[in-house]
Amino acid sequence: MEWGDAAGWVGGLAGLGALVYAQLAHRQASEANRLAQEANGRSSASIRLAEEANQLAEEATVYARRGEARETERNDVRWEGDWIEPGRYGLVQRGEAVAHDVVAVVVVDGAEVTVRRAWVAKDEVLEFEFPTAAAAYAAERAAWAEAEAERRRVQSVSTYLSAFVRDPDPMFMGFYNHEIGERVDWATAHGAHKFHETEPKFASLGPH
After folding, report:
1. Sheet harboring 79-85: ordered strands across?
2. What is the DSSP letter of 136?
3. Structure pTM?
4. Phi, psi at residue 189, to the nearest 5°?
5. Cα(45)–Cα(52) distance, rounded to whole angstroms?
6. What are the pLDDT tens digits along the chain (208 aa)?
7. How would you classify residue 176: left for phi > 0, otherwise alpha for psi between -120 and 50, otherwise beta?
8. Which residues of 114-129 are buried (b: 16+ CB within 10 A; e: fewer)?
9. Is-contact 137 174, C-beta < 8 A?
10. Pairing between β-strand 88-93 and β-strand 99-108 as defined by DSSP bridges
11. How many Å from the N-terminal Cα to the C-terminal Cα in the chain?
């Protein structure tokens, strides 16, 4: 074999070796790039999980503070109910605090009326309309006037008989046999739930 032929073979082998080396280098580079991408992905996932954990921890702290605020919150809200006029019942908020998300219910002889307010401050009044109670009160007043007129008629006719005629008595006439109940739900400024309820009481539908 001549020198030129040998040089050609050597050059060919060197080229082939370079090609193989290039392919191996490319394969190694691809593998390294894949591993780097996986590492980056894991790093991004770790960062994302850390951010989510921090957010959850912050929310838990906020909820804990709210719960503590609700537990220690002073809420001076007091309700007093009475007739404003025949057929119109009023609930007055007597406390210093403000009641939020108020749902108030008054029941008179089975008739139920509900009033809702976003908030109720001190001395504000919730009013409840009871037309049936107004009519019943008017009938009672008429019965009272009739009983009083009869007493006066008997007194004018006979002093002796007047001794046996008693004065009209609202209690005896059943004017205080009406059942009235109150229920109020509200929330404090920090969201704590509060509740007011009176036992059903027997009372009149207005002054007598």
Report:
1. 79-85, 88-93, 125-129
2. H
3. 0.60
4. -60, -30
5. 10
6. 554 454 454 455 555 555 555 566 567 667 767 766 776 777 777 778 767 767 766 665 555 455 554 556 878 999 999 999 999 999 999 999 999 999 999 999 999 999 999 999 999 999 999 999 999 999 988 887 887 787 777 766 666 555 555 665 666 667 788 999 999 999 999 999 999 999 888 888 986 5
7. alpha
8. ebebeebeeeeebebe
9. no
10. unpaired
11. 141
Give 102's strand partners. 117
153 token code pair: 């008629």
Q: Rounded CA gap, 84 and 111, in Å? A: 17
Per the CB < 8 A criterion, the answer to whether 204 and 176 are in contact is: yes
The Cα–Cα gap between 143 and 173 comes to: 9
- The alpha carbon torsion through 9, 11, 15, 17 (nearest 10 deg) reads 70
What distance in Å separates the CA atoms of residue 78 and residue 196, rounded to the nearest whole number? 8
Residue reference for tokens 């007194």: 155
Q: Which of 199, 195, 200, 202 is nearest to 104 (CA)?
A: 195
